[in-house]
Amino acid sequence: MYLTRLELSHFRSHRRSVLEVDARPVAIHGPNGAGKTNLIEAVSMLSPGRGLRRAAADDLMRRPQQVGWRVGAEVGVHEIDTRAEPNHGRSVRIDGKATPQSALARIVRVLWLVPSMDRLWIEGADGRRRFLDRMTMSFLPAHAEAVLAYEKAMRERNRLLKDQVRDSAWYRALEAQMADAGADIIAARTHAVRLIAGAQGAAQTAFPVSTLAIEDPEGAAPFSLEALEQGRGRDMAAGRTLTGPHRADLSAVYREKGVAAALCSTGEQKALLISLILANARALAAETGAPPILLLDEVAAHLDANRRAALYDEIEALGAQAWMTGTGPELFADLGDRARHLEVTETAGESVVTG
Fold it and tell me: Which end of the chain is more exposed for a tag (fewer CB within 10 A), N or C?
């Protein structure tokens, strides 16, 4: 499961870039603002969703032209083409046939770690739920459909609550949809956390192991249709739904020290994140028979030399095609010929890839 060819057309700062790669990790260096992250963001668009920056399709277009963008790739025997025209959502074609985005997950699994995630453990629960759901979708792509179905029904229910609608007939169908989708979400998240915990426990790694848990901040009763029905009065007073998987939080404890991730040092929090991404990748490899593609933006700059070398050894042992970015080639010197080395520079507002 790795890319052999990547083509970008009018994608962010890349007017046109074509790369031929192999199964080795891809080490990308260049100055800030040259377009390194844009390159790996294009790879993230080979998975369902909005990519590693969660950007709208129109925001990915190269400016000032705004003529639409395209990302093409060869993954194994498959050809993937995803693109968007101005004021249109993105489309996906696999082997020349139009498909929904969810079909991408049958071809390639992509995991990423970007600098904005460094504050995962100390900011709001929303980011941790997205992180949890991305991990879950890596194992169970249909999880995305359950999340969308749940959120759509919840938005409709919240509208009724805000309007102080009291007729129970208006709520029944929506609450049944929420209960069904919510049960699937809870089961899928629990399954993913169990797989990742097993992959962490079995690993011989230089990175710290964390104990993960999915928590309900209110300690409420188990989510169910009955819980929604019984909670209508309280929800109506609040003007929103107060019970359900949309309220869950992901917690992590640095197992060796017994310290919550939120209380760890910045370096320890980064190491815990890397450990989780690696565990996710190992668990996926065990489940699917092939490691996922890893996108690690500016990851080497935040590690000391020993941890950096350990990360590269972990990636090699995993057999994953990891796309890594950094400002200087010295950050990837330990990889030597084990990686494909690329340089990204900026000329007249256009990203140029060499190597």
Answer: C
